[in-house]
Amino acid sequence: MLDNSEKKFKLKDLPSLIVDTYKAWDKANPWRLSAVVAYYAVLSLPALLIIIINIVGSIWGTEIVQGRLTSEISTALGSNAAEAIETIIAETQNKEENLISTIIGIGTLLFGATGVFYQLKLSLNEMWHIKPNPNANFWKLVTDRARSFAFILVIGFLLLVSFIVTAGISALNEYIRKVFPDILIYIAYILDFTVSIGIITVLFALMFRYMPDAKIRWKTVWIGALITAVLFVIGKSLLGFYFGEANPGSTYGAAGTIVLILLWVSYSCLILFFGAEFTYIYAKRYGHKITPSYVALEDNNTNSEQPSKSIKS
């Protein structure tokens, strides 16, 4: 049963929602937030990839998973960047260490891999006008890191699902090629786009639901996650085309790979934060409350900066 303060979404409201989202997104300084996350992404990337490769590889096969990831990185950043990242992974995995060094290495690996998700959490809190509770203790930091590690497991699981679905689509394509050879390319494109949208929507929904220190309804989460996923898939294609044609990292020589990673993560985060802001604006306008959890407080200083009078708290 709907609350009296709730309103129903109408398609004619979409343009004003987009406008209000852009104003709030621009006011939140997403370029700075994206730069922070990109910096931590560079530090976290080797550890993050190693954990995902080992987790998914235990089921699918390490070499197959590493090959698929390298292919995806090559598509997004170019072959040179993919080769550099592959070398980093190989060097990290081939080290021979004693027990103490191994234990320290595992701890460093986990801490490093969770860094980018922890920064994403802080950024989403800022986008949604939530600030830390000064009374929160050290245990909150531990649980935040544990939650960040849980998202690594989620990514590993979704990656595994993606591999399985892709394998199924490949088998289906073989059948379609024999029966309907002329329309195969269109069917394959539609299936690939649909699978990408579905998996990425689930990932963003989980991020919006569980990453910030906030309570938000699933109804709101799914709408925001779907919008973000569509923008992300389109943006990923455009970024891949841009990096392939312009090759912006070539100017920086040996540091080109790092620059490409920074650019890709920064641009991707801009899309993610736009989706998060859309979710926030949508929730406020239609009476779906986003409230701080017990470990956080609402940042009342930012409420007066809402971009439109049509958004009600």
Strands side by side in the biggest sheet: 1-4
Span between termini: 20 Å
Count of distinct structural domains? 1
Mean pLDDT: 77
**Can you tell me the overall shape?**
globular
Description:
There is one protein chain. It contains 9 helices and 4 strands; from the N terminus they run αααααβααβααββ. By secondary structure, it is mainly α. Strands 1-4 form a two-stranded antiparallel ribbon. Helix 8 runs antiparallel to helix 9. The longest helix is centred in the middle third of the chain and has 42 residues. The protein is globular, with a radius of gyration of 21 Å. The chain starts with 13 loop residues before the first helix and ends in a 15-residue tail after the last strand. The C terminus is likely disordered.
In short:
The chain is built from nine helices and four strands. It has helices spanning 14-27, 30-60, 62-77, 79-93, 99-127, 138-179, 184-210, 218-246, 256-285, and strands spanning 130-132, 214-215, 291-292, 296-298.
Question: What layout of secondary structure does this protein have?
Answer:
Layout: H1 14-27, H2 30-60, H3 62-77, H4 79-93, H5 99-127, E1 130-132, H6 138-179, H7 184-210, E2 214-215, H8 218-246, H9 256-285, E3 291-292, E4 296-298
Antiparallel strand pairs: 1-4, 2-3
Membrane topology: Multi-pass membrane protein
Transmembrane segments: 37-60, 99-120, 149-171, 183-208, 220-243, 255-283
Protein name: Ribonuclease BN
